[in-house]
Amino acid sequence: MLNAKSSAGATGELSRRRFLQAGAAVGGGLLIGWGDAADAEPGSMPVAEFAPNAFIRIGRDGKVTVISPSIEMGQGTYTSLPMLVAEELDVDMSAVGFERSPPSDKLYGNPAVGGAQITGGSTAIRGFYKPMREAGAAARLMLLEAAAAKLAVGVVELTTANGHVIHAKSGQRIGYGALVDDAAKLSVPSKVTLKDPSQFRIIGTSVKRLDGPEKVNGTAKFGIDAQVPGMKVAAIAICPVFGGKLASVNEAAAVAVPGVRQVAKLDEAVAVIADHYWAAKKGLEAAEPKFDDGPNAKLDTADIVAALAKASKRDGVVAKKEGDAATALSAAATKLNSIYENPFLAHATMEPVNCTVHVKPDSCDIWVGTQIPSNAQLAVSEVLGIDRDKVRIHNSLLGGGFGRRLEFDFIVLAARIAKQSRDPVKVIWSREEDIQHDMYRPYYYDRISAGLDGDGKLVAWKHRITGSSIMARFFPESFKGGIDIDAVDGATELPYDIPNLLVDYVREEPPGIPTAFWRGVGPTRNAYVVESFIDELAAAAKKDPVEFRRELTGKSPRARYVLDRVAAMSNWGTPMGARKGRGIALLSAFGSYVAEVAEVTVSDDGEVHVDRVYAVVDCGQVVNPNTVEAQIQSGIVFGISATLWGEITLKDGRVQQSNFDSYRVLRIDEAPKIEVEVVKSSEAPGGIGEPGTSALAPAVLNAVYAATGIRVRKQPIDAALLRSS
Question: For tag attachment on the chain, is the N or C end more exposed, with fewer CB atoms within 10 Å?
Fold first, then answer.
């Protein structure tokens, strides 16, 4: 990680392991990146050699290619990260393009997630804000030095603008493209000076998406679009019960279907490989696979909830303790106790998971959209028994990630299938297989208590979180002392001043059900619990929900500002019609502050319609306001689907939902009007991909309470609970 001073415009000292490495692109050019090149002699790298461990490549035509360390899945990183480089390099965005990075934790690891090459957790900008800028600043300095030598003047006499080095005294201008060969031979600067934010001309402006045109004209390539010479296509059926095994398959019937080439059998699944997907699908139907359901054949959702409820009565591992919550609670004038439940949720990405694999005797090529290319590469190398560097990941755009493509289970499965084929195989999961064999957001069971004094002031808070641990599986080194840092995220660092607080965690794993990240697991579900309960406390104190929160945010001016702004935007406190209501939620997570107000209408049948959502977001220094607004909007839509309808349930070990008819998502005509205000801030950049979703559920459910007087403590909303009598 870069060891640079935190103040804007400071000179950054680059550590030995993160030294700026200079080299050249194929055909001539300058390459700047972060690598282990501290021992390299200045100018020792071959001028004509391309080294793919860089963030920047500049060609002789002056074009700048930014190699993105983060993958694009709709969040705008293929525009925002190049903007950081372009700002410090002094080039216009019209001269900038992008490429995807190859797998490499060493070269493309995200400092915000411990150096792993991961796109997730709203960390792309948070992790690479300084490294990308410093890479651009270093390249600019080397170009200035090359121009100074060419013009026989001092560097101090030169400036840069729009991809040119300018000597004002003589009026000479030299394009970057004419300098790259000379610049590549120079020693790499060990110090770079970044611009002060007052000098920004790109950062903070609304820039059109660089990946937009190809998505509009249909040339954009996602994993499912992969086309490889000689490729076959496979349809797959996995045991419908987690932990079960394949028992039998009618292989003869499958291969009798025209176009079917072979049947690949695995312990837990069967795949039919054919010339095209339709033949593979029909062959799979003809195969009539049968499964041994295994130990979880009788598992129901009710069993899991009962186990969680029982576990929640145990003392948990303390995640946060301030003051003496137990004593303060016992002495409180008013005491409240509630139980909140969060269901299992599927990701239901628009592009079902898929992966194309070509296994050769000593190597493997994989075409896929993944949020975690380096880990996928390692996993496949271990499964196939080949060297890691012989596994080549060809990453693509992601047709939705939300955490699903942080997992590599489907990639490994595809590799195991392709190992049985001489040809490249594209393995496509049907929508039903995707939803019924997802890695689900965990089911959580929360017990929460609080106490108010005689003036209605919050004096005690106890929150016990019970559920499975994603981090124990995904990042075992971070699971220390029995605490899952993600499970308690959004519950321990509240934007409120509470003198006596206790948050603890009880780990309880559901049998056989794989759990994973879901567009901000911890804050997504903890904000729902915390902000819903804050509303309960406001009602008990007979105080307005906004004013109750204001009283608690005296030590958090950023939280109070977004709270006040969203209240003003939404005309908080003005009357609404019958069975209509407003609800508010405040969130501090991912380094950002978000306040949302939802306006809802509840029909006599108990159906909830979200009419409008207002959002104010302070995510620190904004790179691209367009991206921030779009992410808040998409997060709200994503959150509405989960709040109103999202639920994965099990019966006899089987997931009962299978497609969008039973796992409902918001339709276009159901979408609310959304207004987003982005706060101008000089604070460090915060994350933006997940806060919009995280604040949505409590805002909606608090609005439902305002409309009906009924408190919803279990998602999704049960319409029967809200029907008018």
Answer: C
Question: What pLDDT is attached to residue 187?
Answer: 82
259: left (phi over 0), alpha (psi -120 to 50) or beta: left
Report which DSSP code applies to 331. Answer: T
Task: Set out the domains of the chain in order of their start, with CATH numbers.
Answer: 3-217 (3.30.365.10), 224-294+353-428 (3.30.365.10), 302-344+440-722 (3.30.365.10)
Q: Who contacts 721 (Cβ-Cβ below 8 Å, separation ≥6)?
A: 606, 710, 712
Distance of alpha carbon 347 from alpha carbon 402, whole angstroms: 6
Spatial separation of the C-alpha atoms in residues 550 and 538, rounded to whole Å = 11
* Sheet of 191-193, strand order: 3-4, 11-13, 191-193
Strand-pairing partners, residue 223, are none
Model confidence over 193-219: pLDDT tens digits?
999 999 999 999 999 999 999 999 999
Identity at 596, one-letter amino acid code: E
Q: Among the residues of 510-591, which ranges form H helices?
A: 521-540, 545-552, 557-569
Instruction: Label each residue of 95-162 as H, E or C.
Output: HEEEEECCCCHHHHCEHHHCCECCCCCCCHHHHHHHHHHHHHHHHHHHHHHHHHHHHCCCHHHEEEEC
To the nearest 5 percent, what fractions of the chain are helix, strand and coil? Answer: 35, 25, 40
Residue type (1 letter), 128: F
Tokens of 396: 């693509």
H/E segment holding residue 301: helix 301-311
The pair of three-digit structure tokens given for residue 207, joined into one six-digit string = 């820039």
What backbone torsions phi and psi does residue 290 show, to the nearest 5 degrees?
-120, 150
Residue type, 35: G
User: Each residue of 4-39: pLDDT tens digit?
Assistant: 333 333 333 333 233 233 333 333 566 665 443 333
As a whole number of angstroms, the distance between CA 634 and CA 628 comes to 10
In whole angstroms, give the CA distance from residue 724 to residue 606: 7
In degrees and rounded to multiples of 5, residue 375 shows phi and psi of: -65, -35
Instruction: Report the SS3 class of residue 640.
Output: helix
Which residues, 6 or more positions from 47, have their beta carbon under 8 angstroms from its beta carbon? 24, 28, 181, 184, 185
